[in-house]
From TrEMBL:
Belongs to the exbB/tolQ family. PANTHER family: MOTA_TOLQ_EXBB PROTON CHANNEL DOMAIN-CONTAINING PROTEIN, PROTEIN TOLQ. Residues 67-186 form the MotA/TolQ/ExbB proton channel domain. Pfam families: MotA_ExbB (PF01618). It is found in: Cell membrane; Membrane. The keyword tRNA-binding does not apply. It is a multi-pass membrane protein. It comes from the Bacteria. The chain crosses the membrane at residues 12-31, 106-130, 150-171. InterPro entries: ExbB/TolQ_transport (IPR050790), MotA_ExbB_proton_chnl (IPR002898). The lineage of its organism: Bacteria, Pseudomonadati, Pseudomonadota, Betaproteobacteria, Burkholderiales. Keywords: Cell membrane, Membrane, Protein transport, Transmembrane, Transmembrane helix, Transport. This is MotA/TolQ/ExbB proton channel family protein.
Amino acid sequence: MFAIFQAAGWPMYLLLIASVIAMTLIIERTFSLRSKKILPPTLLDEVVRVYQSGKITPEVVTQLAGNSPLGKVLAAGLRNVHAPRDIMKESIEEAGSGVAHELERFLTTLGTIASLAPLMGLFGTIVGMIEIFGSQTATGANPAQLAHGISVALYNTGFGLLIAMPTLVAYRHFRALVDGLVVEMEQQAVKFVDVVHSARK
């Protein structure tokens, strides 16, 4: 592997850094965007029970907000249970926007790497081509330098595509996953609003 990096030249190290960053972000997002962590299955029922029991205290709301992203959204509603429906819904939407932004953390970086990796590979290819043309002399080409230039060009192109393809797949996957989680969060929050305000009729 080290021999390949030596043959590919210094542009390969830029691609190596990009691949390490992409892999780190993919692993981090895989653990952070687990559905059970974002949307605990029984949390809505527990919040409804707390509301119906009338045991809403600042401590309970703070604990709920720290429970999970869904908890943070429901806590915003719980703080405004005595407010009109529109105000309660607006507070939940504001909290939801903040939570959605948190869920999207690092996705822009991942998308940037997916777009940038082929360009970095192309840059390495150009460096290799420059070496090929630089090997031309009045007496002909230096075979060793010519071979090195070709290897730089091909290795960088291949490695750039190798990084870009899985990173792009991961970016699209996480993007769709976040969108789905946000929609489910909104639906659960609306259910809570309906429970609160239907109980008052």
